[in-house]
Design brief:
Chain A: This is Branched-chain amino acid ABC transporter permease. Chain A: Belongs to the AzlC family. The complex is a heterodimer of chains A (about 230) and B (about 100). With about 230 residues, chain A is mostly helical. Chain A has helices at about 5-25, 25-35, 40-50, 50-65, 70-95, 100-105, 110-115, 120-150, 160-175, 180-195, 205-225. Chain A has two domains: about 5-160, no CATH class; about 175-225. Chain A has eleven helices and no strands. The longest helix of chain A is centred in the middle third of the chain and has 29 residues, at about 120-150. Chain B is mainly alpha-helical and about 100 residues long. Helices cover about 80% and strands about 5% of the residues of chain B. The longest helix of chain B has 24 residues, at about 35-55. The chains are: A mainly alpha (about 230), B mainly alpha (about 100). At the A-B interface, helix 1, helix 3, helix 4, helix 5 and helix 6 of A face helix 1, helix 3, strand 2, helix 4 and helix 5 of B.
């Protein structure tokens, strides 16, 4: 398969996101063992769950003394956004047969965000798989390193990696802020999520903020069409 | 088996089921105009919420720290139409520098 220049640019960007996100596995690994999970349990989480925010939420609940079942509920609720990502991706990726259950594991924030902004189905697939698989490999590798080394390596925050994720999300959102509607929706999502942060368990603000913002968008669209 | 393992495996199964369910929504539903509208709004709404939480939340508290400074730097670079990796890399570097200095 020949690789065009635009594909190469997408692959470079995807690997960059893969590295920045995957490296964060170190902090998950360290937090996991600090919360009382074994190295083995921490690594199984990264392999089988493979959705960072849910993994952090589970470990966060367990670390703060909550039961693993409460952790599971919070974590699965937070994973609910992957359902919506799948809906956005289904057409673009158009996967059937054995490929679908395999592809499903790579449906996460970053792979979706990198894919849905593309012009063609081909580019979306290139972005999705390069981002998803590079994160999967690095995330699992770094989880293992972090779980073994604990906090000895240093906090990823010292390298600003926590800020890198916010910047990456903003870069992905940026080209979509081309209309008043999308700007209002993005701000509504951010505002509702922030309002809920002090009030609800981790994960809920993102889901509810996202849902309210979508409703706001639908209502605004209806009103502008009715006028 | 400990409750910890049960919690981990339940979560893994639940998270995977959600991912697969999203990809398996039938064409009939995908083609519906409402689904199309919602599907285009979801990334914007979720990214807005994700950025806010990623940058301002620390557990259940809202804090202003190096992450917000880095987001400001990222916004300026995006305004200047800098490439993706430059935006992400410089934002990370600025957060690291802010933490080093303060």
């Amino acid at each position: 398969m020949s690789t065009s220049a635009s594909d190469r640019a997408i692959i470079t960007d995807s690997l960059g996101v893969g590295l920045a996100t995957g490296a964060y596995g170190i902090s998950f690994g360290a937090l996991g063992t600090a919360a009382g999970l074994s190295v083995w349990q921490t690594c199984v989480m990264s392999l089988l769950m493979f959705t960072g925010a849910s993994q952090f939420a589970f470990v966060g609940v367990v670390a703060s003394g909550g039961s693993p079942i409460t952790g599971a509920v919070t974590s699965v609720l937070l994973g609910g956004r992957n359902l919506f990502y799948g809906v956005s991706l289904a057409r673009l990726l158009d996967v059937h047969g054995w490929r679908r259950p395999v592809t499903a594991q790579f449906v996460i924030d970053e792979s979706t965000a990198m894919a849905v902004t593309r012009d063609s189905s081909h580019q979306a697939r290139v972005a999705f798989y390069w981002t998803g698989i590079s994160i999967f490999v690095l995330w699992n590798l770094f989880t293992f390193v972090g779980a073994l080394a604990g906090t000895a390596i240093g906090d990823p925050r010292d390298f600003g990696l926590d800020a890198a994720v916010g910047a990456a999300f903003l870069a992905l959102l940026w080209p979509r802020l081309d209309s008043a509607l999308t700007r209002v929706v993005a701000i509504a999502g951010a505002a509702v999520a922030l309002g809920l942060v002090p009030l609800t368990p981790a994960g809920i603000p993102i889901i509810v903020g996202g849902a309210v913002a979508v409703l706001v968008g639908l209502l605004l669209q209806r009103r502008s069409e009715g006028a | 088996m400990t409750t910890l393992w049960i919690g981990i495996l339940l979560t893994a199964a639940g998270c995977y089921a959600l991912k697969l369910a999203g990809l398996s929504v039938p064409d009939r539903v995908l083609d519906h105009p409402l689904t199309v509208r919602i599907a285009t709004l979801i990334p914007v709404a979720l990214l807005g919420a994700l950025i806010a939480v990623q940058v301002l939340a620390d557990g259940s508290a809202l804090v202003l720290d190096a992450r917000l400074a880095a987001l400001g730097v990222a916004a300026v670079l995006l305004w200047w139409r800098m490439p993706f990796l430059v935006v992400v890399g410089v934002a990370a570097g600025s957060a690291a520098l802010v933490r080093l200095w303060f």
